[in-house]
Fold:
Amino acid sequence: MNQPGPRLLVMDASGTRYVPLDKPLVTLGRRSESDVRIGGVGVSRHHAEIAFENGTYRLRDRDSKFGTFVNGAKTREHVLSHGDRIRLGDAADSEIMFLVDEDEPSRDRSAASAAIELRHVAGLLEGLRALGSGRVLDDVLALVLDSAIEVTGAERGFIMLAGDRGQLEFKLGRAQDRVTLPRGSFETSRKIPEEVFASGRVAIIEDLMDGRMAALHERTLALGIRHVLCVPLRLVRYVERAEDPVEDKAIGVLYLDSRERGALTSKTARTALDTLSNEAAIAIENARLYREALERARLDQELKVAAAIQQSLLPPAGRTGPFFSTAGSSVPCRAVGGDFFDYVDVAGGRFGFILGDVAGKGAPAALLAAAVLGMFGAEASYQPRCAELMTSLNRRVFRRGIEGRFLTAFYAVLGADGSLVYSNAGHNAPVLVTSGGVRRLETGGTILGLFEHAAFDEEAVQLAAGDVIVAFSDGVSEALNEAGEEYTDDRLLAAVEASRGGTPRQLLDDVLADIRRFCTTATPNDDVTLVVVRYEG
Amino acid sequence: MQLEQRMSGNVAIITVIGDITLNKGGDVLLKDKVNSLIHQGQKNILLDLGGVSYVDSAGLGELVQAYVTTKNRGGSLKLLNVTKRLRDLLVVTKLLTVFDTYDSEPAAVASFGAASA
Structure:
């Protein structure tokens, strides 16, 4: 069970194990990213760390809640010596011991230090993530190549990685003194890397000038290359349970060459490269994963921008004119939604408002909603008739020809004298609340965008001061609670009735609060949009 | 969503079981089915929706699309056994005026005969 080198002997609930102290900083704590993961109460997530500095191992407490102890004494910082017992917090069921085996011969320095450097880089990835650097993969590849060239003494190094379909793709070439090589320079010697990648075996070609080999590598020879060392980059993931298979996958090849015969044959160079290639594979894979995560984050960011743009397309929530006041709200269930509303000034000093719902959710619905808002804005200011406006919107959406895509909408125009004209295109009938009672505004036609020649009607209604129109999307009436029940038109009507005396803003807030009370913690399943308009007389 | 197809005279009856929604891919399945029938020259299509509990907006869009496609090819698509929930949706969207709906299969099948005779 004994292992060479400075190490920790860790004994806890999950068993006894040795953890080598083979990198500049080893972290101890409860979180899963810790190098030494210790569970239990009283252990902080990032509890302590052991740093290798000036030839000594320093244990430091990382502001843990319950302290770090060495040989029973609480400590902030301690230079570890052979046999020291470390305890994190009051985790009585775990013990950590620091051990140094003096007799173990030191490993080849260059290989070990290069490997340590790479591990350090893998650790640095964490920090780069925070900085949002997009060049992580290139940086890691360059570092791997520079280290490989350094420890083997090769003249040039190349890395090829497997693409999506398993084909090798040239990624980066470097020469001595950290010089990046132009892309074309590697095209001549693909044969060796492809063989190594396919077989998974290291290829050492001692002398391409050898008559037998020369014919196969004509183009390589043209460059004066005589000596090649090519190793597969294998990603090995060790698993927790012994019976699980170890994951071992080739992700690419590391290729080194030199014009000088015999330069790459030394045993030291081979050992160094073996160590290096394992660490390199892990660092490269991490960098790749990181880059993918970054691309996903960028998509999320674009959605956030889209959401901001969409909200800015909607009018200010409330609008007050000489004879009316309004309040509106649209909350998409995803980042962006298919619901929309807008206010418009119509010829003759009248006030128009529209509320619509594009079928579907998310970005596709949002795009059509934005397009419809554009069509509406262009048309509404000079088209005085509601029915004509609906007919025109229908034809324009239909001509876009987005298969199966449609929307429902309610459009109304209110005059200073209280005359209201509206047209309802397949939309949930808005509620008109008057002193005489409640009625629904249904007149109009069917949904917009699917029938080229659909016809639309309009209805004129006379409003009295204080009358209120509540228009809403089906995300309101069909909002679900945790039991899967719908909010329903009836609950909406009751909520509207209960606060009809208030301003549109109050009424809107009351209804939204009532919906939230009903849904409690259930996740919204559709966009929720409400517009309240009151005729003030 | 499941689709079962049978013939009654010159009418293709598609029985739909399950929800017609975007999430469950029901909208696409139904469209493909209707398109393939039309492609085979079938002009009379009757959708039996008695086993459909829920239709979302995407599903509704596909029902309409199927109707329009059939009509444009000189055929007709009618609905059988529309559930209360779907009927409410057709009322709100005023699509009940577009679709011919029936509660009895013989009456529905006969209506095609009358139209094509």
About this structure: Strands of chain B lie at 2-8, 11-17, 44-51, 76-80, 101-102. The mean pLDDT of chain B is 86.
